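sorry for the late reply, my laptop died twice this morning and i had to redo everyting from scratch. anyway the thing you sent over, i finally got around to it. pasting the sequence first so we're on the same page, its 464 residues, then the predicted structure underneath. double check i copied it right bc i was rushing
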Amino acid sequence: MTSGWATLLPSQFAGLGIDLSARVAGLVRVFGNGAAMAAVIPVGGGAVVLGRQVGAADEAMDPHVSRRHARVELDGGRFWVTDLDSQNGTFVDGERAVRGSRREAQRVIRVGESLFLPCFDVRPFEGDGVVVQDGFVRGPAMRRVLAEVARAGELGFSLCIHGESGTGKEGVARAFHRTGPRSGGPFVPVNCAAIPQGIAERLLFGVRRGAYSGAEADAEGYVQAADGGTLFLDEVADLDLQVQAKLLRAIEMREVMALGAVRPRAVDLHVCSASNRDLRAQVTGGKLREDLYYRIARPAVTLPPLRERPEEMPTLVERELRRVVPDLALHVSFVEACLLRPWPGNVRELLIEARSAAQAALMQGTPMVESRHLDPDAGMPLTANGSVALAPERSPSAAGPLPRESRSRARPLDGGERARIEEALRQEEGNVAAAARVLGMHRTQLRRLIGRHGIGAPDGGERE
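ok and here's the structure:
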């Protein structure tokens, strides 16, 4: 299988200590009977038949599965699916398979109301599969990363986390804190991109009364607040270079000088940093001090994007819907639609769109969230002008046509929200990525709002 949607990519095998020659190809049943799961079905000798007569992975519990529903075989390094004249049909990557004809599966297979992911090696799913740890959904790929994080925390190192926006970097930073010797101390997260440059030094290092006009009382900064614990610096390269110099001194000397103070205060802390950009490139571009880079950039871990760990999606969606609207059921078509999209905004975008779909279902008075409630643009990459780069193909298995009002569910912005977006764009001179960081959202969401509501930058254009 050549798609990046394989549950485990070849590059991940080495980190798991898996011998490629010993891998066990198969299927992972990630949804069935209206609930998320992670049941393993090895392909074995090259083929497996799904159906009630066979009973693999409890298909017998799915009343919409025929006795002999579909055959899945591994041939030439690819997964092929053949519908065996089933009553309800077989859907491969969102399209109905022609009875008796083989169709290659790259993303997801739908049999009855069950969803299966083709997987080059199902062994990491045996046992735990997909679990919830400390409130976070973790599949095999993320557990591998967390094992590296735990080792770094136990050894008392700093840690640098790389990953796309929305992949869960703060959750991993908290895991680093919990596994370290300072787990009993505070965890202080700092979004450096959201700190205005004029007050960054005061917020980070604190201030003494009388240091400047208006400083009427002593105030500790983030560094002092993290004493005895962990300081998490998200997008540290967005700090002013002079502030970076003072931060480096605080880390290396284990002391911090507040504004207006006459002597430094000792601090003992771990530092965890994160970025969705290449920090080495930030050094080359003059955005990050080289000496600070060498201090915080190692050891490092890279979080896989959600599209490379699709086995987590059903559980993520299920938990989010249970949290916001417990009475709504989850239809297989909605989960299937989520698995068919790349989600450039990762977990953050998926959860936002799941909540939006739940709201749409409630407004329409339906008892379950279906694929027709998912915004057509959700989970899709956007072009520079805010339009969808590749329109999603609706699955023929979707539960009914989209109502006219759901095709463009662009709810009007209230005046305050629109003004906040326009002000952020003005402040960042039309830089959408920077404005999105100020607003605390992914640039994908911001571009979508710009395109839907005709919001313009100060000079009439936007840029990255």
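The chain has four domains: 10-125, 140-302, 309-407, 415-453.
thats about all i looked at so far, will dig more tmrw
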